[in-house]
Amino acid sequence: MDYLFDMPTDFKVYKIKRDKSSGSQPTHTHPYYEIFYLINGDCTFFIDHNIYKLNRGDLIVVPQGELHKSSFPQHGCSERYVLCFKESNLKWLNDIVGPDFVKESLSTGVISIPDKRRDYVESLMNKMIFENEGQDILSPAFIRTGLIELVLFIIRCRRYEENVIKELDVDNQLMQQIATYIYENYDKKLSLEDMSDKFHISRSYLSKKFKAVTGFGFKEYIVNVRIKNACRLLLETNKSITDIAFECGFNDSNYFGDAFRHVKGVSPNKYRKNKEAI
């Protein structure tokens, strides 16, 4: 089932501490953007098929609908800002530079904010937290301008600055390769036995390590990747639900329907009909 934060409005921002006693966050998606900025400490962040080791000053953009999970540190604690906003907040920016430019610039990615610019980012976050408490009738305007300024800064970093893009987590390179293979070959037959043979590891090790690193069971991840692509086809094409099921790697349309309801909470047909609400 989709894991959704409580967002009664189109914007939310907060500062939070986490350690191993906080429990594990479930892997989830949500129908809005999220910006995650690590103030101090460290954590592992899994998004779609990529695994990142985040440290102080790292910022990750999580687009709408992307599978992701953060793992809390085993020692000490980490502190982060989390900012969530709906696409409607970007209308002004879309009108100026174009929605395609904005969407591409806010695709999944991790930026290592340079030391000299961290105070600037953290100041913006603190201002939005302050205004989000509802200081006066001008607070919504201050929040909107703060968000746009932060998004513009992120776009500039990603497009025009050098050496700010975070590399993947090399400590989990094998699990990274397996997740990427599944992500790119979701429409094919994928079994634990076949993958263990392909990557020359035991089935038990693959199963346990994949779960520990990504938060997904092996089969669970395959199903979620297939469902994600099925959602895209349901909204962007007129293909039949049966054709979409087979195209996404399901060999039984009934099983596809059950799996879809389990992950999305509605049937494929209802999901397609509710396109405007998604």
UniProtKB/TrEMBL annotation:
Residues 176-274 form the HTH araC/xylS-type domain. Keywords: DNA-binding, Transcription, Transcription regulation. Gene3D superfamilies: Homeodomain-like, Jelly Rolls. It holds the Pfam family AraC_binding. PROSITE patterns: HTH_ARAC_FAMILY_1, HTH_ARAC_FAMILY_2. It comes from the Bacteria. The keyword rRNA-binding does not apply. This is AraC family transcriptional regulator. The lineage of its organism: Bacteria, Bacillati, Bacillota, Clostridia, Lachnospirales.
